[in-house]
Amino acid sequence: TPTTRGLLQALERGDVHVHYQPVVDLRTGTTTGAEALVRWTREDGSTVMPGDFLPQAEASGAVVQLGRHVVERACADAASWPVLPGRAALTVAVNASGPELAEADYATWVVAALHRAGLPGERLVVEVVEGVLDERSPVVAGNLHALRAAGVRIAVDDFGTGWSSMARLGQLPLDLLKVDRSFVAAVEPGREAPVCAGVIALAHALDLTIVAEGVETAHQAAWLAAQGCEEGQGWWWAPALPTGAFVARLEQEA
Ligand code: G
Ligand code: G
Ligand code: MN
Ligand code: NA
């Protein structure tokens, strides 16, 4: 089983890679950015997915080092991506877990990484799961405000899976909602999807931009666009790709 010690060794050896899943404008079908998703390559060449090592990394605190590696890499990679003619520069989204946001210097460190990479804060999104917003921690809130002040946008990840934080949504500095893929999965031809429609309406009432996750079909992409959902992410367009493959795919849109 993947251990924290193994993860820390993999970080030192350079065996922890960052892949990028395209985020697409639902009206135009063009790529506007990507979500950075971590992958651990074992010595035998096999890949360990985040679900298999993140829970332990969060419990041990190793997720802090992991997150710093991902932020550093994601900012450098995004700074290297081409800007297509007539298009805005792409954004890159990183996931921040509870222990990372509980570090008093999280935002300071992220801003320093932006500077090292020469990436404007406006090009970074930090994704926070709903559960973290529930904690009412002044350290977490301080980090979110400091990131916002640097131009970084904040997304609520897996939205709709943790309704208890509803009240917090109006109190924290948030910009985007990522609708959990369990809601998108309910969108099928000939079937009503009132919960997904309701989640989208709620996000818009809060003046938040919506990214629908787990989009797997043309029907879902069209239905979400018709609901006014701004962006989508999912296998319908592409899985998470190494930065080179991500750029190659992007260049085909030019
Ligand atoms: O990579 P995969 O598609 O299996 O993603 C599973 C989940 O793991 C994602 O939803 C995300 O929340 C989490 N995850 C992926 N990469 C990172 C990372 O770099 N840091 C943190 N904290 N979570 C991540
Ligand atoms: O941060 P988050 O947990 O949402 O990360 C995205 C996760 O969803 C990753 O595990 C990724 O591999 C997975 N994923 C991405 N696109 C799709 C999709 O279209 N369908 C499904 N079922 N999973 C997806
Ligand atoms: Mn995410
Ligand atoms: Na998510």
TrEMBL record:
Keyword Transmembrane in record: yes
GO MF annotations in UniProt: cyclic-guanylate-specific phosphodiesterase activity
Entry superkingdom: Bacteria
UniProt keyword annotations, A-Z: Membrane, Transmembrane, Transmembrane helix
Domain EAL: 1-254
Record's protein name: Bifunctional diguanylate cyclase/phosphodiesterase
Species, as recorded: Quadrisphaera setariae
